Amino acid sequence: MNIDRLVAMANDIGTFFAAESPPERAAEDVAQHLRRFWEPRIAGRSSQHLREHGGAGLEPLARRAVRALAAADLSGACAAAHCPGLQGRFQLESPIDSSEMTRHDTEFPGGRGVTHG
Fold it and tell me: Could you tell me the residue ranges of all domains in the chain?
């Protein structure tokens, strides 16, 4: 998918949640929407765009959401791989709702699943 189109979609989603969510929850709500409805490779492209180009074109709310999405993905992958050297190095600007995660079957953003014993 064209990155300009991806940026425009993230900004549109951000605009929606800016109007519908309390300001303190808006970035988290956008990030949760992206996790739920964007195919993992597309979400990954948005994170890549943030890393490589600073999220050029993303509005502040969409940028915070993509940053939270990327941080949760990296922290989750790190926890799954048991690499404590990276844990805690990625700061989330807003908390991520983990209420959908269960102890036995956890799906991380990006499509990586981890089963806890």
Answer: 3-114
